[in-house]
Amino acid sequence: MIYGYARVSSAGQKKDGNSLEAQKTALEAAGAKKIIEEQFTGTTTNRPAFTDLLEKLQTGDTLIVTKLDRFARTVTQGVQLIQSLIDKGITVNVLNMGVMDNKPANKLIMTVMLAFAEFERDMIVERTQEGKRVAKQQPGYREGRPKIPKAQIELALSLLEPPNNKSYNEVARMTGISKSTLQRRMREKKANEIVSVFVRSI
C-alpha cells in the first residue's frame, strides 16, 4: 500500500502553502492511494493518526510526505524514524528530498536536511520571540532574512560537489537556500581556491 501523510499544526496554517488541501494534492500526484491527515503541532509526539499509521505500515509499503517537517522536527527524531522504517523494508518518499534508502549518499542527505529543518524551526521561534520585542522598541524596524550560518552554506555546497554531484535546483529544494545564493557562494569559493593556489605558487 502507498500511504500519504498530511499534517497541519494549527488552523491558521491551513491558509498557507502547507494546507491540508495542498499536501493532499501533492501526495495524490505522487501516487498515494490512502492519505492520513491530522492537525497536531509537530513538537507533539502524541499524534494519534500518525501513530496508527506507523502500526499499519508493513514491509513493501510506501510512506509519502510532502516535506520532512510534516512528521519530524528534530534531527534525532527524524533520523531514528526514517531509519527504523527503512530497516523494516518500508520505502520513505519525502517529496522535496526524494526516496530515502540505506545508500551512503542518502544517509548524508537525510542528516543534512533534518539539520536544516531543525535550524529553520529554531530560527522561526527566535524571530518570533525576539523580533517582536525589538520592533516595538525601535519604531520603523524591519526584520530581514536571517543570515545563513557559514556551516550551513558549506554543507549545501558539499552537496554540489563530488561524490554527491547534486544540481543547483536539487540542493535549493533540499536546503531552502536560493539557487542564486548557492551559485554566488560557489563562485566565491572557486575564486578563493584559485587565489589560494596562486598565493602558494609565488
* Number of E-state strands: 5
The 3D shape can be described as globular
- Structural class of the secondary structure composition? alpha/beta
Distance between the termini: 64 Å
What share of residues is helical? Answer: 40-55%
Characterise this structure.
It is a single chain. The chain has 202 residues and is of the alpha/beta class. 53% of the residues lie in helices and 12% in strands. It has seven helices and five strands; from the N terminus they run βαβαβαββαααα. The protein has a five-stranded mixed sheet with strand order 2-1-3-4-5, with helices on both faces. α5 packs antiparallel against α6. The protein is globular, with a radius of gyration of 20 Å. 19% of the residues are buried. The model has no long low-confidence stretch (mean pLDDT 80).
